[in-house]
Amino acid sequence: MIGVFGGTFAPIHKGHLRLAMAARNQLRLDQVRLIPAAAPPLRAAPAVPAARRLRWVELAVAGERALIADGRELRRAGPSFTVDTLVELRAEHPREPICLLLGQDAAQRLPRWHQWRRLPELAHLVFFHRPGVAPLREPVTRLLRGRRARSVAQLRARPAGLWWRCAMPPVSVSGTEVRRRLARGLEVKGLVPDAVIADFTKKDLEAFAR
Fold this sequence. Notes:
This protein has helices at residues 14-27, 50-61, 82-92, 104-108, 119-122, 140-144, 152-156, 175-183, 194-199, 202-209, and strands at residues 2-7, 31-36, 67-69, 98-103, 124-129, 163-167.
């Protein structure tokens, strides 16, 4: 079973890694593919180029069992639509269960995603609940109605079409806070993997400061 975890990863931080590892362990995933968005369609383009962000994901997952840096969205022109990524993965793995990993805040924005109603055709939807975030609302609940999996085994038994809720690991770091600290020249050790910090260049730090 394959997990798909997308984002800008600008930069990847330990909260991202904890979520990916929690999904791997709770769902018994064979792999989790961390996929940087080259051109995120619903937010401003990150200040740091996509190739640098992919490089940081590669450094962050090196040595982590079953975590894979996947640069496929850098090889596509146009906006980085999740549905296109899932179509590609489904073509590569026609019978394999695929789980799209979503923080609950991202889940609230699903109706703004390109062709979002196609997502259950292509993958299971796995939500990470965070205390203080509002519950899912219509029309997301309407799309999910009757699709809740009763067990992880049920997810494994079919390629797509169900949804599941995972426990959110304790995360005390956010991308916004990391970027704020980098912009001010402050330390991010303990928040960002050491290998990623060591790879920051002067140009990267100047980009965060803009």
